[in-house]
Amino acid sequence: MKRVIFSLGLLCLYHLPGNAQTAVNTTLNILPQVGQKMPDFELEGVQQFEKKTVSLSDFKGKWLVLDCWNRYCGSCVESMPKINEFNKRYGQQMQFIMVGYNGSQYGGELADKAIRADFEKYKAKHDLTFPAAFDSTIFHRFSIYSCPHIFIIDPSGIVRGITYMLTKENIEDFLAGKQPKLPRAWRKGENKVTYEDTRPFLIDGNNGAATDYLYRSVISPYKDYMHGQSQFRIKGNQMQVMGVDLASLYRYAYTGSGYIALDERQYSEYYRNVVLELADPSLFKPNRNLRTNTFCYSIELPEGRAKESNIRKILQRDLKNCFGFAVTVEKRKMPVQALVKVAKVAPVVVKNVNASRSRFKTVNDIMSYYFNATYFGSGIPIFDQTGITGEFDIEVYCDFNDLNDIRRALREHGFDVISIVKEMKVVVIKDDKDEM
């Protein structure tokens, strides 16, 4: 005998041997399904019932519980006194019948005699009065794989549950018109899921579907076949960002912004560039064309848990677990740039084929232009020290990719960009001495 035991309280599911599943007449090969009509069946030699032979139609207008068991199933035997009490209490509305497996692979005629003798012993010991039958055909026909295997059928003949455990509360819910949640009993071959402990759980169907999780977070390299948005946005219960450099992941985790743009609340508080104090900073040198040192991050949380504060804390742990760096947020005096008002200089003739015209009406227009020009370069933030609050109207003609040329054009209109020092919060990434 092959036993497969699932620990669930006192439950012991006893699986029928493989050779019990014989070929089934295709005209009868209709399996019970929850929510569908119960396939008709016939039981002969029913004990302790008004009829010796019964079929599904005999129970029309009344609930029916078929509790299938075998003599090697300890939990089946233990449940008999409980089923007996259920039959006494709810018998006017719900009929209980225990169907014992008397298959020939247990020893031919001796198997049938053995299970019947066992039942007589249990009946005498516990004063069992519920109806009982012994029939292996129904086991084969309905592909019953393990016991207990219980069918709950409503007065209209619709299957309302297929389970291995039934409680008083379940029964009362059924009788009250409710649909209780029941643990599922599987038919032979129905559960196709396999599990290999050498492969990651849920990947490629390993012990479940890819969506069978409550919480998940993933860091991956950005492969050349991948695509998706690179904005740190929470949508529903998840956040997914594709193809970002490692510094952006650390920025979001520790400041709440992946990029610290000019119009974000973090701009005046946090220094945009992270400070690297690493023996090998190569992971922070992305090549976006070759997609080296660019990454993806995906996180999904249970309902109501996908808050920015939670996601940032989890991302901090994920980055630590994946890359091992130590991170602090410190106040340091950092080099920044300032837009200032200066005396106008005489314009010069520009002969740069890359030059273009841009019109500015506010100080913020100039700062945004300069910020975007330096975004993938120095990344040093710029702050307003002009004292100008009103509007104006100027047009500059310069090369957007040449910071010196931008400054030259601004000076013609009485503006300049200078270097200063400002105390700001900085994300500092260091080698973790405990992991070296």
TrEMBL record:
PROSITE patterns: THIOREDOXIN_1, THIOREDOXIN_2. The keyword Signal applies. Residues 32-180 form the Thioredoxin domain. CDD domains: TlpA_like_family. Keywords: Redox-active center, Signal. SUPFAM superfamilies: Thioredoxin-like. It comes from the Bacteria. Residues 1-22 form the signal peptide. The keyword Cell wall biogenesis/degradation does not apply. One of its GO terms (molecular function) is antioxidant activity. This is Alkyl hydroperoxide reductase subunit AhpC. It comes from Pseudobacter ginsenosidimutans.
